[in-house]
Amino acid sequence: MTYKDVLKDLKNDCLDNLYLFYGKEYYLIENTIDKIKQKMIDKAFEDLNFQFIDGKETNVDMIINACETLPFMGEKRMVLIKDLECFFGKRKNISDQEEESLIKYFGNIPSTTHLFFIVTNEIDKRKKIIKMINKYGKVVEFDKLVEKDIYKWIERTFAKYNKQVRKQEISFFLDITGYLEKNSTKSLKDLDNEINKLCSYVGDRNLITTQDIELLAPKSIENNIFSLVESIGTKNSEKALSILSDMLMEGESEIKILYMITRQFRYLFQIKLMEKQGYTPVAIGPKLGLKQFVVKKYLKQALNFNVDILKKALEQCLLTDESIKKGRIDQRMAIELLIAQFAK
Question: Which of 5, 45, 327, 339 sits at a 20 to 30 Å CA gap from 118?
Fold first, then answer.
């Protein structure tokens, strides 16, 4: 089940009385809770009919008492428990016996109460309490948005600030922030902050441009590496060295930068070979663990290189790594020489 299903149930007035919300996108969890609260709880009586409980500072009796309290001047009451410790790791405030009591209570929650557990850490789906929530209610994962949904979300978020943004700018914004990248830690909260910053910067101007985004949005290391390798491919050694210098000033280590350059050349080499064998971007993506839009971007960059050059670049990256690890050359100088060799 996803957050979309929860909102659909909310619209159709058929919410369950028990939910567990977890996942990487806490921003989406908060947004979903807010929408439920707006529809279910009268603002005038929110203090009486909406109760937040810190899961690290509570016990089972407090949770049950909160659920058994009748709504005041309304039909529904919401009880929200954040980070109850029995969902993950070691517990300090909930014993095994108390957990069993809570599990038994799940089947007896009053029809006037909606109980929401929110977990900001990873959950262990093997735990009995999670399985029983799934039996009596719903377990909902709030994962990162997929490509189609994140485009719509970005467009709506800019519109919230009365700004327009075209698809090509959204694509550039995603590239530069790295939200869709496999190991990215960027969240919707981060993107919302960047959008807010962009909208403040442009002032009364309605349209967001690529130049605005390039100027203000923070660049991920993946995006910087892509630009560095792009500069190598177009033989612009000055720009490549400038990007390297900026990354080092931002605190990235030489070893990590070399690893990322090597990875980029490896992807380009693999994609180039697979394209020669007749593979399409749709087929290449799953084999390399890359999203289709990333494959298309790499295919475009690969036009700057032939297979032999990419093979030599990969070999030189490995030799450079060996030289650094054996102390034969200064780390920064080694990467600068690598760039100079292939950008000349």
Answer: 45
Total count of residues recorded for the chain: 344
Which of 141, 159, 182 marks a domain boundary? 141
DSSP annotation string for 162-198 = T-B--HHHHHHHHHHHTTTSTT----HHHHHHHHHHH
Residues 185 and 285 in one domain: no
31 three-class SS? helix
Close Cβ partners of 109 (under 8 Å, ≥ 6 residues apart):
17, 18, 67, 115, 136
Pairing of strands 138-141, 77-82: unpaired
For 91, the domain range is 3-141
For 248-263, what is each residue's pLDDT tens digit? 988 888 988 999 899 8
- Binning the chain into helix, strand and coil, the percentages to the nearest 5 are 60, 10, 30
Q: What CATH number is associated with residue 181?
A: 1.10.8.60
Rounded CA-CA distance 287/278 in Å is 14
